[in-house]
UniProtKB/TrEMBL annotation:
Top enzyme category: oxidoreductase
Enzyme Commission no: 1.6.2.4
GO MF terms held by the record: flavin adenine dinucleotide binding; FMN binding; NADPH-hemoprotein reductase activity
GO biological process, one term: response to hormone
Name of the protein in question: NADPH--hemoprotein reductase
Domain of life: Eukaryota
GO (cellular component) term, any one: cytosol
HAMAP family: NCPR (MF_03212)
Parts of the chain that traverse the membrane: 24-45
Organism: Polioptila caerulea (Blue-grey gnatcatcher)
Domain FAD-binding FR-type: from-to ranges: 281-522
Length: 679
């Protein structure tokens, strides 16, 4: 303070006469001292406040949630020693995790299933504080080798972590699909990375293949996993597997209907009082403004829908996916109610018997059985073996009970019976109840056992530059006859087909949200693009072409835009024919190559057209630095297209087959070969 004050006083010491000094000093002295004192006082207190501010936030409440996110504390508090984390996009990995955690009691252990998104996974280093502790990871791979949404933070942590996990014992079961390029990438990565961080693997990595029989893969792994756990910890099975209810039924006879869920995914009344941001737990109710049939003939129904997202604040990019929450067919729901002799409008809750569990209910409660079976539960897919095992106790006929138990067993004969009678025959829960007349389970236990009805994802068929307030969907209605002669219909596509635009003042609404994708146009509009998308695989490319047309209108230099499209016959299922012709006429779509597979004796597919134009394809790829995009069927088309690129690269790049494969893989790594495929 003194150092600051001293220079400011120097001008007052002048060479004036003593008389002037005396008279001036008396007046100035008072003035300056007052001024300096005032400034000093103001500055002192102002500085004090500034210095004290950082101390104020030191409140325990800010730190407290960290303890709540500790799965270690929860395990200690509830006497658990096995934690099963799941990375799940469609609910299957979560289902497997629940089954493993329930298994633990047979070996005198206690397990809990856990969502990695809800906990601090750095606590894995502390798991050894618990006796006979084990961490199991059921990890699904999503898209092109990506983690599921709920495992993204865990994946990021694993990549950056330098933690010492030497006290951790673990096992991993991965869920993937062999038709995809990066089969089980997430399961493999978690297994490898945990070992690198010093953790001890107590059983080998399990790799489930959804293109084969995922359920059988899981059962086979699980029946070898538990003996390995027993050997490691020196424990034995306590007896036969028993049915243990996870939830208890509470029937509400006198309930305020405003407190009852009617199909909402998260917040009660969220469909009546919509609030952004919209996501998986808070979908937006979009109005259907258009629903038209795209194909001219054939037995299939291909459709184009437009969803109005005005005032939702939803933003999307070309290549993103729209997730849609469908509803089950009311006739299936009614038949289940009739067979089980249940009043479907009974309002009930299923409450978790484990009070410490984060998951209080299997689906939003209180609700009615009708709502649960319509909006929350999957009643159309063949049930998994654990459901059959639990239901067996309710079959009064000994033969039917034995059949159900056999299908749920790990014996080769039982697995074969489950595969033929349930999976290949595509028997859903209604078909099983119809074909086993003595099987009449309580509806509440059935609701506890059935998996959740999942959102369906569609590649967005529009560009937000052209349609900022609308999202377009291109889909084919799934409908087929099973080996038992039943007609099975796809849940979402049949439901979407029935969604007609506004009629008589009432709107058709679709609960939806947008999921971001890595399927993106090149940053520079001048970069050429080669798009390959037969059938409904054309969807994202309609958005891409719309965007390139818009960029051209803005005066941007747009590179070559090449499309390889395929359908059965020109006058049957040539989707978006008029739009594509217009884009070609305008010069936006520089090449339109269409393969009509069934218009000649030999079938012609998109890969045949790529081979036919191989010189041009190589020139675009090698000289033009083109980006390649493939959308559609993963099992055959995407693989055949990739093999064709290997051949083209090998021939024109003067490379061996392994070198050509490496070249294409590098294109993928650099983001120049992108896939949006499904099986």
């Amino acid at each position: 303070l003194t150092a600051m004050g001293e220079p400011s006083m120097d001008p007052s010491i002048s060479a004036d006469s003593p008389a002037q000094q005396d008279s001036l000093f008396s007046m100035m002295d008072v003035f300056l001292i007052s001024l300096i004192t005032g400034l000093f006082t103001y500055w002192f207190f102002f500085r004090k406040k500034k210095e004290e501010v950082p101390d104020l936030p030191k409140m325990p409440s800010v730190v407290a949630p960290a303890r709540d996110s500790s799965f270690i504390e929860k395990m200690k508090k509830t006497g658990r020693n096995i934690v099963v984390f799941y990375g799940s996009q469609t609910g299957t990995a979560e289902e497997f995790a629940n089954r493993l955690s329930k298994d633990a009691h047979r070996y005198g252990l206690r397990g809990m299933a856990a969502d990695p998104e809800e906990y601090d996974l750095s606590d894995l280093s502390r798991l050894s504080e618990i006796d006979k502790s084990l961490a199991v990871f059921c990890m699904a791979t999503y898209g092109e080798g990506d983690p599921t949404d709920n495992a993204q933070d865990f994946y990021d942590w694993l990549q950056e972590a330098d933690a010492d996990l030497s006290g951790l014992r673990f096992a991993v079961f991965g869920l993937g699909n062999k038709t995809y390029e990066h089969f089980n990438a997430m399961g493999k990565y978690v297994d490898k990375r945990l070992e690198e961080l010093g953790a001890q693997r107590i059983f080998e990595l399990g790799l489930g293949d959804d293109d084969g029989n995922l359920e059988e893969d899981f059962i086979t792994w699980r029946e070898q996993f538990w003996p390995a756990v027993c050997e490691h910890f020196g424990v034995e099975a306590t007896g036969e597997e028993s049915s243990i209810r996870q939830y208890e039924l509470v029937v509400h006879t006198d309930v305020n209907m405003n407190k009852v869920y009617t199909g909402e995914m998260g917040r009660l009344k969220s469909y009546e009082n919509q609030k952004p941001p919209f996501d998986a737990k808070n979908p937006f109710l979009a109005r259907v403004t258009e629903n038209r049939k795209l194909n001219e003939g054939g037995e299939r129904h291909l459709m184009h829908l437009e969803l109005d997202i005005s005032n939702s604040k939803i933003r999307y990019e070309s290549g993103d996916h729209v997730a849609v929450y469908p509803a089950n067919d009311s006739s299936l729901v009614n038949q289940i109610g009739e067979i089980l002799g249940t009043d479907l409008d009974t309002v009930m809750s299923l409450n978790n018997l484990d009070e410490e569990s984060n998951k209080k209910h299997p689906f939003p409660c209180p609700t009615s059985y009708r709502t649960a079976l319509t909006y929350y539960l999957d009643i159309t897919n063949p049930p998994r073996t654990n459901v059959l095992y639990e239901l067996a106790q309710y079959a009064s006929d000994a033969g039917e009970q034995e059949r159900l138990r056999k299908m749920a067993s790990s014996a080769a004969e039982g697995k074969a019976l489950y595969l033929s009678w349930v999976v290949e025959a595509r028997r859903n829960i209604l078909a099983i109840l119809q074909d086993m007349p003595s099987l009449r389970p309580p509806i509440d236990h059935l609701c506890e056992l059935l998996p959740r009805l999942q959102a369906r994802y569609y590649s967005i068929a529009s560009s937000s530059k052209v349609h900022p307030n609308s999202i377009h969907i291109c889909a084919v209605t799934v409908e087929y006859e099973t080996k038992t002669g039943r007609l099975n219909k796809g849940v979402a596509t049949s439901w979407l087909r029935s969604k007609v635009p506004e009629q008589n003042g009432s709107s058709s609404l679709v609960p939806m949200y947008v999921r971001k994708s890595q399927f993106r146009l090149p940053f520079k509009p001048s970069t050429p693009v080669i798009m390959i998308g037969p059938g409904t695989g054309i969807a994202p490319f309609i958005g891409f072409i719309q965007e390139r047309a818009w960029l051209k209108q803005q005066g941007k230099e747009v590179g070559e835009t090449v499309l390889y499209y395929g359908c059965r016959r020109e006058h049957e299922d040539y989707l978006y024919r008029e739009e594509l012709a217009r884009f070609q006429k305008e010069g936006v779509l520089t090449q339109l190559n269409v393969a009509f597979s069934r218009e000649q004796a030999e079938k012609v597919y998109v890969q045949h057209l790529l081979k036919k134009n191989k010189e041009n394809v190589w020139k675009l790829l090698n000289e033009g630095m083109a980006h390649i995009y493939v959308c559609g069927d993963a099992r055959n088309m995407a693989r055949d297209v990739q093999n064709t690129f290997y051949e083209i690269v090998s021939e024109f790049g003067n490379m061996s087959q392994p070198q050509a494969v490496d070249y294409v893989k590098k294109l993928m790594t650099k983001g120049r070969y992108s896939l949006d495929v499904w099986s």
